[in-house]
Amino acid sequence: MQKAKYKLRKNTLFLDGKHPSIIYLDDFIRNNIEIFKTTELIRLKDLMPENPKWMLGARPCSAIAQTIFQEYGIKTIIPSDSNLIDGVVRTAIL
Q1: Cα(8)–Cα(23) distance, rounded to whole angstroms?
Q2: Most Cβ neighbours (<10 Å): which of 5, 34, 66, 80?
Q3: Is the pTM of this model over 0.85?
């Protein structure tokens, strides 16, 4: 989301070092429209030179997330770059 210039704001809900930003649903939707309709896939891939194929799933995942947020009335989103291995490590530490 940072690389694609989504309108992220400072997370004032809590501080844990892993989730510095929030994005409001209305901003997320506006940014998604731009990413879906006007940003070419090659441009998205250029944003991730270390793994350009990751961007092949970025738009579909954002569309799924947006649908879930809208369906459940979630207005404030807390983005994360955590993945499965982060959860495994946290569980092992506990």
Answers
A1: 5
A2: 66
A3: no
